[in-house]
Amino acid sequence: MTSPYPGMDPYLESPENWRSFHYHLADEIARQLNPQIVPKYFADVEVRTVLQEVGIAVGNEAYPDAAIFKVSPHTGPQVTAAVLEAPIQRMVDVSSSAKLRTVNIYELATMRLVTAVEILSPVNKTGDGLQKYRHKRSRLLRSEIHLIELDLLRRGEHPGQEVLYPPLDTDYVILLNRATGGNVRRSEIWPIALDEPLPIIPVPLLAPDADVQLNLAAVFERIYTDFYYALRIDYTQPAPPPALRPAMQAWLAKQPK
């Protein structure tokens, strides 16, 4: 079965679906690229574990589950219980972790990193994770490495200033920034609305080798079909937040039910 959406499916952005989709997306991209780039290059998936703060909403005051009260003495029999200290005390890390995946293309003879395909996730589009990713992004842009960013999430903030200013009225963003050896690099940007198919984008290698193609629509279709997301998603429920843009709400209202 195919997705009811022509391109990216917003239901895959939900927490229960995104983790597996993000995982399969990286693998399928590498699988599609490798036959086009061997034997001079190869693509592989780099996995990084990033700690996330566990958010617990509390008020200004906290109350223990078990309270200790001072009571008036009484004249009955006294029983004194010793207050025992636990023999072992250890710290517990209350953070959670997220695994971020990048598809890297290497030149086989030198193991030189040629192109990085960054698949953005919620952790690197908000808060401290966004700042850390921007730092990594800045280092990539100052290097001789080509950068491709796949931002298939409507929530969070786009990390690239070239995407933010002026802002793009779109849902998803694909970005290619080629290494040029100069102080200024140009970003090629594909804004993708919810009602548009995912594009075929060029993937640059080392000069004078020609670009190869990454067919994102074919990647998406393979993942959606092979892992039976049509059976796992309840399309009768509202799409996960954030709310759809007004133009996309109008488009969705016109689709056959």
* Rg measurement, Å: 25 Å
Please, what is the average pLDDT? 85
Summed up, the helix count is 6
| Overall domain count | 1
The N- and C-terminal alpha carbons lie at a distance of 16 Å
Beta-sheet strand percentage? Answer: 15-25%
Give me the secondary-structure category.
alpha+beta
Sheet having the most strands: 6 strands, mixed
Q: Order of strands across the biggest sheet? A: 1-2-3-4-5-6
The coarse silhouette is globular
Pick out the low-confidence regions. 53-74
- List the helices and strands in order: HEEEHEHEEEEHHH
Number of strands: 8
Please give the share of residues in helix: 25-40%
Q: How would you describe what is shown here?
A:
The chain is of the alpha+beta class and 257 residues long. It has one domain. Helix content is 25%, strand content 23%. A 6-stranded mixed beta sheet has the order 1-2-3-4-5-6, with helices on both faces. The protein has a two-stranded antiparallel sheet with strand order 7-8. Strand 7 and strand 8 (212-215) form a beta hairpin. The longest helix has 23 residues, at 15-37. The model is unreliable at 53-74 (pLDDT under 50).
